[in-house]
Write a sequence for this structure.
């Protein structure tokens, strides 16, 4: 049986601890979703402004993306900015909106070399042009890649997604395209923003919070949940692999015995 050993795949990235959990590479979750929480608190505990935490958190995105890519994860969805995050202080929101401009020019070449494809799940309406341009350029430059899909949930909210999906479904019923009596979970899933992606097998949330925060509410119905007290900027590859190992130890019965 294939396993992840301590040689760390022969690369130069070093684990936070010397011992790593063994991972069965033939049982890696296809889709991992992450709520990247705790940037602001991480910074405040160090006497830094909250935006410093967001900047450090941004640097962690590529590190965990490469860790996921190393073991064969197919989709990595990261909760980057929710529809509720617009309520934050204006200066903080503006900083967050400028992060894609900084992240993609720095990291896009390595992402391309590793066959990573960028996509976005969320609403483009309301995003500044500079944010949208940076994301759309990354999507365009990686559209032919066939490896891991790095999916940013940006300006995204689960309840809004469900409402929009139901509205679209009603429109199709009214247009005679669908019979409401034949409504099924499969049909509803087809109206979600992630219709072309598998539902997450595993959800990871950092910072010690134990809630979903309006993230992928429909899609997470049968996902395994894994929580850590570590803030996102200090979430290491080792912790990521611990989450994968714990996922592999669980029995997924989907309501059966």
């Amino acid at each position: 049986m294939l396993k992840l050993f301590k040689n760390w795949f022969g690369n130069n990235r070093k684990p936070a601890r010397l011992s790593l959990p063994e991972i069965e590479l033939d049982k890696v979750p296809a889709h991992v979703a992450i709520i990247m929480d705790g940037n602001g608190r991480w910074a405040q505990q160090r006497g830094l402004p909250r935006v410093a935490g967001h900047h450090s958190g941004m640097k962690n995105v590529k590190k965990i993306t490469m860790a996921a890519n190393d073991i064969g994860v197919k989709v990595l969805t990261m909760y980057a900015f929710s529809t509720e995050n617009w309520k934050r202080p204006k200066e903080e929101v503006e900083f967050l909106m400028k992060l894609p401009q900084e992240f993609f020019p720095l990291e896009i070449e390595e992402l391309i070399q590793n066959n990573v494809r960028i996509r976005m799940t969320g609403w483009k309406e309301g995003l500044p042009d500079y944010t949208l341009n940076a994301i759309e350029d990354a999507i365009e430059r990686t559209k032919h890649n066939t490896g891991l899909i790095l999916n940013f949930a940006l300006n995204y909210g689960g309840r809004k997604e469900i409402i929009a999906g139901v509205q679209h479904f009603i429109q199709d019923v009214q247009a005679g395209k669908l019979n409401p009596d034949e409504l099924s979970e499969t049909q509803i899933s087809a109206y979600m923003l992630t219709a072309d992606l598998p539902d997450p097998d595993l959800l990871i949330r950092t910072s010690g919070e134990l809630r979903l925060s309006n993230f992928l509410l429909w899609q997470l119905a049968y996902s395994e949940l894994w929580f850590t007290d570590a803030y996102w900027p200090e979430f290491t590859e080792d912790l990521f692999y611990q989450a994968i190992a714990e996922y592999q130890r669980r029995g997924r019965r989907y309501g059966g015995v």
